[in-house]
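Objective 1.3, modelling of assemblies. Example input:
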Amino acid sequence: MGTIQELVGGLAGRFRILSFSIPMKITKITAWQVDLPLHEGNYKWSGGKSVDVFDSTLVRVETDAGVTGYGEACPLGPVYLPSYAKGVRAGLSELAPALIGEDPTQLGKLNQVMDQAMKGHPYVKAPVDVACWDVLGKVANLPASDLLGGTYGEDFVLYRAISQQSPEEMARNVQGYREEGYRRFQLKVGGDPDVDIERIRQVAAVLQPGDKLVADANTGWLKHEAMRVVRAVRDVDVYIEQPCLRYEDCLSVRRNTDHPFVMDESIDGIPEILRGEQDLAMDVVNIKISKFGGLTKARQARDLCVSLGIAMTLEDTWGGDVVTAAIAHLAHSTPTEFLFTSTDFNSYVTRSIAHGAPQRKNGRLAAPRTPGLGIEPMEEILSGEPALEVG
Ligand code: MG
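Predicted structure (tokens):
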């Protein structure tokens, strides 16, 4: 049984679609650390970087209306973007006190409060923002995808990230995932350019018409190495993603190749998208929810890209069921022709952390049609020791 305030708040929340609405307040923010091991044992990408077990953070936002929302943040180790797993929790301990008493359903205002309370650190803010979209959806009794712009089609297309291994192993893995239904593959290259050329060639040889291949160097090549690779695979139908560390170096490669070009690590906000558009620096941009700071800002970037005619990969740095659900709502609410591809991270990891999360079928995914994110974290996690409790 709740207090009178919770009861009144609960009724107010339930009937917000009627003519009155009482502001809702965040009363508590709780976070749990969750280990997510990988089915393949580990994941390797450019420069010898790898992760064996992902360190994820599940975040719960509670309100005075009795409505609860969930978000999750999971950096791809500490050397992919300027983010790290313990940083999510450390950042939340700084940020969360400023959010108690704020209305979780007023997402623009809430993001302003977060930006005023903490400069930068978008990956810390993302799980809070996502949890508040979950609250908003539950209050509105609508799936987040409907609130993010509308739900397009039955489902949407996924890619499979292919961990960096020998060309032969990568071609074998692509063949295996192809048999599971995937039709888009993102090869982790950015290693020795001569081996990368072989990786691209051997994988391209096992693909069928209609499949799409991306060679993602994850900033791993210098300009001269990138130029050698793009020239050596000129006859292959392959997209080149983020070849070099600096934006200017990527742009230089882009201007000297006719392969379709994807920007990822260099694009983490609206000004960067506008600059990329001005320079005609990319055909596809990779928008990750935690790189932009949550669904609110990822949606703003997504809508801008639609206006500019830029296709997108919509995803996150990694995660489990809650991240996968958030990605699904963003991807499913994107006009189909603009969604280049998306990801189902929950199928890469051995541990499920929530009921109701979307599950891949034939290389495709659909956002849940239940209110909010449509997921419910498992009791075994919620009953565990929290890493953080504020409120
Ligand atoms: Mg990438």
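The first helix runs from residue 4 to 14.
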